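This part of the workshop introduces the protein records we will be handling. Each record describes a single protein and holds just a pair of labelled lines. Instead of coordinates, the fold is spelled out as a row of discrete tokens. To make this concrete, we reproduce a full record directly below:
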Amino acid sequence: MKRMRRMNGKTGKLSSAIVAAAFLVGATVGTTLAAESAHPSLDLSVGLYSKYVWRGYELSKDSMVVQPSLTASYEGFGFNLWGNLDTDQSLELYDQDGANWNETDMTVSYDGSYGMVDYTMGYIYYGLEGVRDSQELYGSITLDTLLSPTITVYREFSNYPGWYTTLGISHSFALSDKVSLDLGAQASYLVVDDASTLADPDNSGDAYSDFHDGLISAAISIPVNQYVTVTPELYYSFALNNTASDVMKASSASGNDDNFLYGGVSVGFSY
């Protein structure tokens, strides 16, 4: 199987400091929670998309993917299950073709706030087909100000050790009393610990470390009623430099793709 899976990145000392700070904030101000209802909440969604792209890597080819998600949350704590069903897997990416459920992820998280800072910390388990499963710890900090700048640091610690960090901005525009246009953009930096996991294309003896992928997104949230929302979505993923381009092309189905325009629609139910 050609695909590059679950490689994660960031420069070492700065990444460690950010993650440590996120967990320290959680420990010291744990009673200051994000604005949530007093009762448990349940969110269900199902998305249908033209392609599955993850951190710049093409994980489907010429097939629709179905991605259901279930999230339960209470008093800042959350539990999520997410999956990917490829309706027609490509033999250029997987060992078998046809419709197949090829990924199930589990996330345990905690959200909180302190002043104008919102923070999240959590753990993700990636159940993958054809490659070893992956585990990450992550921390995220968002400033409650113009464009909501957000930095998120992921640390893979099981089978593909490394750091993956994103810096993103987002903004929501009201199109009507209920309908909104949500725009976002982010850039990432990837640091792999071991060249045997992912080597630098220009020097096979060195582990890959560089600015990696960029992502631009647009979505329109359309409430159907109090509980149901329909959201058309559009994404553009691209390599941030020539080295990242070489890495992405090597893992793409055709061997020459490093940018992807894709989209779809999701239907969500919240209670």
Observations:
- The helical segments are 12-28, 242-251.
